[in-house]
Each structure stands twice: as structure tokens, then as C-alpha cells.
Amino acid sequence: MESARLAPLFSPRAIALIGASDRAGSVGRAILSNLTTFPGKVFAVSPTHREVLGHTCHRSVYSLPIVPDLAIIAIPASEVPRAIADCSTKGIAAAVVISAGFRENGPEGAALEHDMLAAAGRMRILGPNCLGAMVPKGGLNATFAGNMAHPGNIAFISQSGALCTAMLDWSLREGVGFSALISTGGMADIGWSDLIEHFGSDPRTRSIVCYMESLPDAHAFLQVSRRIAPRKPIVILKAGNTDAGARATASHTGAMTGSDAVFSAAFESAGILRVRNIEELFDIAEVLAHQPKPNGPRLGILTNAGGPAAIAADAAVSGGAQIAQLSHSTLQELDEFLPPQWSHGNPVDMLGAASGTAYGRAAAVLLGDENVDALLAILTPQAMTSPLESADSLAAVAARINKPVLASWMGGDAVAPARAALNRASIPTYDYPDAAAHAFGLMCEHSKLVSNLRQPPDDALTFDTGTAKELDSIRKSGRTTLTTLEAERILSTHGIPILESTAARSAAEAVRIADALGYPVAAKLWSERITHKARIGGVALNLRDAQEVRAAWHRIEHAARAQAGDNAFLGITIQRMAHQHGVEVILGSTTDSTFGPVVLFGAGGSLAEVISDRAFALPPLDTTSAARLIAKTRVHSVLSGKDGREALNVKALADVVARFSQIVTKTSLIAEIEMNPIVVSADSVIAIDSRATLQPAEQFTP
Amino acid sequence: MESARLAPLFSPRAIALIGASDRAGSVGRAILSNLTTFPGKVFAVSPTHREVLGHTCHRSVYSLPIVPDLAIIAIPASEVPRAIADCSTKGIAAAVVISAGFRENGPEGAALEHDMLAAAGRMRILGPNCLGAMVPKGGLNATFAGNMAHPGNIAFISQSGALCTAMLDWSLREGVGFSALISTGGMADIGWSDLIEHFGSDPRTRSIVCYMESLPDAHAFLQVSRRIAPRKPIVILKAGNTDAGARATASHTGAMTGSDAVFSAAFESAGILRVRNIEELFDIAEVLAHQPKPNGPRLGILTNAGGPAAIAADAAVSGGAQIAQLSHSTLQELDEFLPPQWSHGNPVDMLGAASGTAYGRAAAVLLGDENVDALLAILTPQAMTSPLESADSLAAVAARINKPVLASWMGGDAVAPARAALNRASIPTYDYPDAAAHAFGLMCEHSKLVSNLRQPPDDALTFDTGTAKELDSIRKSGRTTLTTLEAERILSTHGIPILESTAARSAAEAVRIADALGYPVAAKLWSERITHKARIGGVALNLRDAQEVRAAWHRIEHAARAQAGDNAFLGITIQRMAHQHGVEVILGSTTDSTFGPVVLFGAGGSLAEVISDRAFALPPLDTTSAARLIAKTRVHSVLSGKDGREALNVKALADVVARFSQIVTKTSLIAEIEMNPIVVSADSVIAIDSRATLQPAEQFTP
To answer: Closest partner residue to A166 among B163, B237, B308, by Cβ?
Structure first.
């Protein structure tokens, strides 16, 4: 069992606190006080104290009578490597390093961190520079926080210690419990993948909630998460991505790919639900932990007031859910006991006079409808309404039927007892019905994420050895911008359909080539320097005869030299004119600093960035994932033939996307590569223009 | 004073309750009980009771010793017209009709409503079918709700009575106060414009908050709101728009315009802030009522923890605010007293050890920076932190400086007293810092809306009389789809630059026209039936000689007849080929059922719907508003020459948009009209293709 590796950390039998102290306000004293709830043995270690808070102090771990599982270290950073060495020698399996002053403090601290890890041997370390860890059910509070969390089913892992403290304080007020509350600190050793792994197999944990600032172990994290996510929800709030956008890029793909979008694609590929604010983070964790998974997005809404239901319906639809179409028999059943002016449709507005019994009965009818995947129950205090009776009868129904039920009993004191009753029945309640509808949208998104999870294809192609050698020698020559011809060769070698170009080193040669191809032709700049050819006037389309080809040669030559000097012009390339009856798309890949290659697909052409119709995925993709990527864009409606349009060859396009995604995972030579446009027509898919840049030679680690 | 008209309703000196009752659970009893807080005279009217709850009953209003200002009516609907007639005869100025059973109940109820209005004379009526109205400061509770609201500065106007009750209950728990709480009911008489007018000049009201389901008096409402909004925030939650999208349309403009988007454009034109959920509605109303208006979007963030500040910065940027760039002197001043490892930038992370005094000092420095328009103060409970001292010193600073300050003291009990202190100082506090940042984004949006408010242009053009006659005779003939030539003529007559087309009734005539124009030319279907020419193969571009023109004639003829019968083909139109060096945009207008004509601008071409880059505005527009409309789209970055592109003639385009917007306001003959594409180049703006449909003759009311 993988999770056994962190057992000494989260389920220790005995603990040593290194840096025990009784100085008021000291971290050592706070931790020792917090350890009083720990049922196992606690040893205080201090070279200066004899006794601290009733614990006899040991001068070092060597004098401890037994080998504890866990050391908590709260001493100056400079002394930590030595202490870790002592612990390791003693045979202690894990440490929580509370001390700050490591990598976050510059080169000197980084050296200390390096020494600490070197001293650790097989010992596992949480931190440094962290608040510590709590396991409420085990009575373990290895932190210097002021309180112990309530026991519960959520594992909360945070890269911010301050957020841990604030969340702890909030959870105590709200009565939210945790299976564990972990402050990761600097993640010198134990990282995201270890923690997801551990809580993934921890039976007390029903959902894993993370606040993430960075992801050093991206690859391992995605692998582990993909395995855990189907049986345990993983929810992440990822912060700090507003700095993007400033970097220069050589492709549309680069310009259209922000690191934030890549994180979203990565989380999606691993079945992780990404939320956008703190409130959602805990709310949805509770809901996912306690409610059954919806079988679909069709929401039934039951209400005693029209307005709030209308708002909820809006929120549900804009959150990706659907308003269920009630079956005929449901409408008939409701007719039997609802007042004649009820809404006769979904939302089911029972009107103000609904009794508690009728409320429960209507809920049962709705949940019994096979067109309804989940129920949102709304109630406003009105003259004839009993909020508590309605809540009780709803709870009784919800307990019988295995579909999600969410509730919004609106108002203050008048509905407080009813809300408490719903909470006791594990029915999540919301101040506002639109918030409940939004939560259901997130539930649907999560279900879809998990059911869409796929293993990466293993029949992935191999990267051509000859091409790799050629690219390596280009970048060793100091050049990273490829010519269009070179970019095309990479793609066509690996089976991507390309509209062939032929290079001409003189105007006369260009005319010969065009004559042989047949008119009209396109002429494009051939350059090792300029990649955005069209923007500088390096593209001439629809050339109808030799004279026009000659004129294009001179125009392009002039433009290139004016833009980037004499060396920028090697000649022009000649292409048959692509036929016009197709839709232009873009397919590209760029290299993300955290995740490596990432694939972009979208509406193409020279205005691709403006059209801004794009979707991202982490390669490699099989054709099913490729088709899903395509289906996320708006241009998909044109490709698939909506509004009376002809359906285009989406299947062949998905094949191209899948193949392309596999190419870019099989080499680390390429920094960016894209085809724009690819023209998709009813019977073919063909790339008309391509560009690529290489990773600089010095960055390459084979 | 306009507002004096509703004074009898909201500031009555004496009230008559018609339908007084002491029956337990009756509405009449509930209202009479609620009227005990009213300081003026209350008369109970009932034909059957002698005395009710200590009030001697009058058999009718005629026997009242004085003329009350206000009647509250809670009797069966069938008796209401008679009661209203009595009140009117007696000279009562206003009535609140609580009774239900009018238009919402079908034709019979609608007839009763008609009778009621006819009987009212000059009397003003709130309702029918409403909860009533409260004016807490005046002790007026003319509702059957269980409680009286706290006095405050927010006027809440709701089209849902149930939402009123729920909000009242919620406000009592949260301590939120109201200047008035109004349930509009069916709005048979008093509508949105009356109420906005009244509370706009009510000195006790500092912000107006509305829950809206429909807007029957759209024109008057927008006019009044435009006048009120600059001095008093108007915030609206509009519900119930998810049903759109199903209707068939004859234009891109129609397909791309949802009624929800039109509401947004209308609110924007009147300086109204639209919010998307109930929570925002009240939150932002409080903030706008109590905080100074920000001078700009640049937010300073002060924090004692990095993680929450990073989340807040993300939320601020995605909400449209900016992270302020601190001045050099601010950085120097902060260096003087912050620990050496502070973040040295914005967000200003003071780290965990910040004292209350240092917190206040840092807040003062930030608010003193002329690059900072507002401050978001974040605090998490940490070992060395005093939440209350920090709150107090922040409040002292905020009181001195006239810039918005928002706060998030995160956590539960540990920060509760500090939050209370902030609330007392009118500093809005949030559980989560991202929610605070989001609120600041709304404040910025509101400021921008108000400062962008413009009077509609009064130099608007007049619609050509000849054209109007011609269009009217076309629709009287039963045809509503115009030919391209007819659509073009409307536009060119009113000064819109059009690439001229010439109609050909035979292939030979088409060739003669093309010869005269010079090749290449474009040929398009000429039809009174088919408006989406390209989709059915009715467009042929780049025809290079007579032979190609002849071939195009036959192709188009065949396609049109196959698609829509022999009558669909009148011939073809011939146009010079438009030059290619421009960007295609769409400009159109459609008729909204609430607001009338609405203008759409966006990226154009045959894929306009897919590109889905569009913005809406209510016409007429001057060139400044037209330029703002253009600037809202993504294609604007291309038009204005970003990324090294050539800047195009945006000024001429804005002129065309403004002129077009004025055309569509000057006639009610046109249902939809659009130009797609308009080609914008560096020196010109020209419409290449147009289409239009007319309002059917029977719908036209001159």
C-alpha cells in the first residue's frame, strides 16, 4: 500500500517534539500544548530545558527510550539539518518541519534545505515553513494553531498556512469537520502526489480539497489523481495566475495559451474539479462527500414561490445544468393534490398555500420521475407555510431515493429550525436558491469529468529518428525558428496531411514550379527568421500567371528584407491554392513550464486570436478525447453541420488532432508547433500553413 | 416634484383598511395588526364587522369622518372595482390592492382589472396581487408580512412577493435596513418608472434595489433611470430569461441576440448595475450606499498572508479591476516599518507578525498613494496578530481618506469582534477576500456605467418619406422579406456606404453589367424569398470573365429554385469584387419585444454566429457611444491595429454605426436589418451585403 508510506506522519504511535519550550508565545510551547489531545506517547526534546509543561525534556533524540514514528521540529533553520540527521539515525520515519528560513529566504536558505534533505535518508518530511498537520479523529494536532479541528470527512491540503488557520477558525463556527488539515509549507520532500495518494486510500476521507499555488510534481500528481478521482472527489482552488500574458510568443498557439488555461486542462485530464473561489471550495466538498452522484444534468425544481424558482432556473442553466422536462404521468400525479393554479411544469410552483405533507409528496413525485436527475427544493416563509414540516417531509423522501437533493429555505429566523433539520439529514442548504443551483452545476461538472476520464493511448506513435537528429543539429547551430518547409516536414513525416510547398531560390524557379503545379498558386516567404509571414506581407494568394508570381517574389523579398534584414529572405515557397469550400481551424502545441506540451484547438485563420474560440488538452489524446476537445469549441457547430450547413469531416479531423498530440509528447525538441489554417471540408482535412520553434539547445536535457 | 405623486402612498397621514377582519389567519387581520406601528389615523372598513381589534368599523369609506390619503384593499377581487370607485369618489389619492384574482387568473380576472382601473380615476394603485409596502422610518407597514423591516437607506422593489418576505426575514437576521420595501404585484397602474422616480428623489433612500421579472413600461423606466442613476445607484436582478433561443430568425443579428443581452444593453444605457444573483443584489447595494465612488479600477491589497491575497488579486483582475502599481515613495515608506521580507509590491504582504498599529500605518500609506483607487484589507488570525486592533486602526484611517475600503477578516470567532468593529465603521466585510475583490469589481463597473451615461443624440436624422412609403406598400402586399437591393437602398438613402449591386434579369444582362463594371465581379441571388443567400449556394465570388458570370447565373438559378420554388429566383445581382485587405464586421438591428430596436455590432462574415464576438446597444447612439460599442468586441483589437497590424478606419466605422442606429429608431417598419460583411480597411468602410425584413402590416400601429 502506497499510503502506508505516510502512516508514521498521520497515524503515529509516539511523537518527539524537537524544540519544546515553555516560553510564552513560542511555537514550541504552542505545539506541546496542542499535543495534549494526542493519545500516544509525546517526548519533549530540548538541549536547554529540564522540564516543559510537565514533560521531562530529553537533550536529544538519542536519549529517547523508544523510537517515535514522528518528529515535530520547531528550532532555528540553521540547526534543522543536524536535527534531521539525528532523527534519521535514531530511526524516526517522518518529520514535520515547522521552522522557516529555507528556500524562501534565498540561496543560503536553499543550501540549508539541500543539507536537510541530504540528512533525511529514507525519512519523509512535511514542510519546511508550515503550520503543521492535524488529524482530528486521531487526536493529532501537530501544529501551532490555536484550536483543534472537528473530525469529519474532508482532507484539506493547503499551500498557505494562513489559509489553513482561517479555514480552521471558519470551520469551527460552521461546524464543518476534517479527516485531516495539512499545511504543506515549502514541499521540500512530501508533495502533492504523496498527499493525494495518502488521502485517496484513507478510509476516513470522503473528499480531498486543495488550495494550490504551485505544482512542482505535476506528472506524478496527475497520475495519482487520475487513479483516485473516480472514487473520491478531488477539488482544487488554484491561485495566482494573473501575471500571464506578458510573454512574447512566436505562434498563435502561444499567444492564446495562458498558464491558467493549462492548469484547467490538466485538472480536467485527471478528473479534478476546479473551483474559482474559497466559498465554492468547501461547499462543493461537503456536497460531493454526502450526496449521491447525479446520473445526469436534469434538475427538478420544487418551490412555493415563482420568483426565487425563476432565478434558480437561470442559475442552473447558466451553470451547465438543464431544467428537467417532466413526464406526463408526473404532471398528472401533481394535478391530483396541488392547487389548480400550480405552474403545470418545471419549476413546480405549489403556490403559497402548500402544506408540509404536500411538499413532501410533490418532492417524492418529482424524484420518482425518470426525467429528473436531482431535486432543488425551495421554500419561502409565507402565511400558510410550515418551513419545518416541509423540511421534515423532504428529508424523509430524500432518505428513500438515491438522487441528489439540495435545498434553499430562504429567510432568517423563520426558517432556522427547518435548515437545521435539513442539515441533520445531510441535505445541503443554501441562503439563496441560485447558489444551490450553481452547486448542482458543479456536481454535474464533476460527474462528467469523472465519467470522461480516459487512459492515455498506449498505441502512441514513435518520433522519427532522422527528424530528431535533423532538428537537434538545427538548434545546435543556434537557430530555433524553423522554416515553413521544415515545420511541414515534421508533420508530414508523422502522417499529418499537408498541402505541399516547394521552395524556390529565384523568381525564375518560382515560375517553373508554379507552371508545373498549375494556376492559381500561393506564394509565401521562405525564411529562417520570420514566422508570422502574413503580418509582414509575406503571403500572396491566388496568383494567376507567371507574371503575378514574379511580382509576388519581388514584393515578398522587399517586405522580408525591410522587416528583418537581408538574411531573412531565402526565397519563396509555392503551393497550389487550397480550395475554398472548407472551414479554417488551428491546431497547435506549446510548452508549459509546469506540464510540458499542451495542445490547442480552435477556429483558425489570421484572426484566430481575435475569434478566440479555443480549447486545451494535455497530450497524448486518443481519438475520443480529440473529438471531445473539438466539441468544446464554437466552430464545432459549423464542422458538425448545424443550421443547414453541410457536415464536415470531423472524424478525420479528430484523427489528425490525436496524431498531432502524440507527436508532441514524443519529443522534447519542439517548443511550439502549429498548423493554421487547417482547412476542413466534407471529404478532407489538410494543413495549409505551419510554423514551429525549437527548444534552445542549452535547455535540453535528454 | 414628480415624487409628490406617490406621497399619499408612501407618506400617508391617514389610512383606511378595506377588508378589516379579526378572523385568525386572515389577511385583513394581519394588515390591521401591522398598522399598529403607524403614527397617523387608521380606519377599519368592513360591511360585516362592528369592531375589529379595538377599531370601530365603518360600513364604507363614505362614512369616514375625514378623507384618508391611502386605502389598503384586502377583499375578494370581484368586489375590488366597486371599492376603488368608492375610494375615488371619496377623494382618496392612493390604494394598495392586496387582493389576488386579476390578470394572472385569465380573461375574467383581466376584465376585473380593467374595471378597477376604469374606476380609479386619478387615484394611484399599487398591485393588485401584492404583499404591500413598508416604510420603516414612517412606521408604515401596509403588508401582511409577519415583521416590520429595520429602517435603513435601501429601497427594495420586488416583482415577487415571496422574495420580499424572504428578504425581510433575512434582513432582520443580518441587520440590514430599508427606506422602503415594496411588492409591486401585477403593476396594473404603478410601474417601475413611477417607483424609480419616487425613490430617486426620496432623501431617505441612498440606493434602489430591484428584483425584476418583466418591464412593461420600458421606455419611461429607462428615461427615469438615466436621470436618477448618476446620483443614486440602481441595482437590478433580472430573472427568467432562459427560454430564449428557440425562435426562428431571418438574420445573423436575430440569431445572435437573446432577450437577456438586450436587457443588459438597456440597463447599461440607463446607468443601471445588473447583478446575477441574490447575494450580490444586497451586498452591492450596501456597498454603493456607504462607500465613496472609486476614481478608477486600481486596487491596493494589504494582507498578513500571501495565499488569500493571491486569490483576491485573481478575483479582482477577472472582475475587471486592476492591481495598482505602487509608487516609488510608497514602497520606500513601507520599507521603513515593515519587516525586511515584506512582499515589496502590491499585494502588500506584511507577513504574520504585523501589529495593529503597523496595519493601520500601511493602510494609510497605500490609500495615500495616488496610484491606488481603493483598498482591500485582508487579515487572517495568526499567532502574533490582533484582529481587533488592526480593524480599529484601519477604521481610523478609512474615516480620514475618501477612497473605498473593503475588508476580509477571515475566520470565525477569532475575528468576530473585529468584523463588528469594521461594520460599525461602515467598512463592508467579507468572509472571503475574493468576494470582497469581486464587490470592488462591481463598484468599478457601476462607476464606469454612470460616467459613461450619455444623452441620446438629438441631431438624429429623419427617415426618408419616400422609402417609408415604398416599404409600407411592400408589406401591405403581404411580403416582409426584402431583396438585397431593397435593403441596400434603405441604407444608402440614409448615407450608409454600400458596395453597389445591379440587378440582372437574364444571363446576358448580367454579362453586360459585369463587362461594364470590369472583372472580377461577384454574383448573388436576387430573391424576395431567400435571405441567407450564401447558405443555399446563392453567392459566386471572383468571377473573372463573361463565361464564369453565365455559369454562375445557371448555378444560382438552379440552387434557388431547388430550395424555394420557381418564384424564389428573380435573377442575380452583380457587384464589383470587394478588395480583400480589410476586416469583416457585422452591424445589425433587431426588434426586441420589450425595448424595440436593438443594435448589434461584432466580427462578421459567414461564420459570425460561430465567432460569436458581439456587443449590443439600444439606439440611437452618437459616435462616442458607437465607438464604445465597437470597443467592447474582440475584433476591435484588429480594427485598432494591435500586434503590429495596420490601424483601420474605426472613426468612419463609428460614424456608420451611429448613423445606422439612428435610422432604425426612426421607423417602426423594419423588423430586422443587417449588413454582413461590412469591410473595414485603413481608408474606407463599405457594406458588401445586406438583408432586411419588415414588420408584418397587421402589427404596425402608426
So the answer is: B308
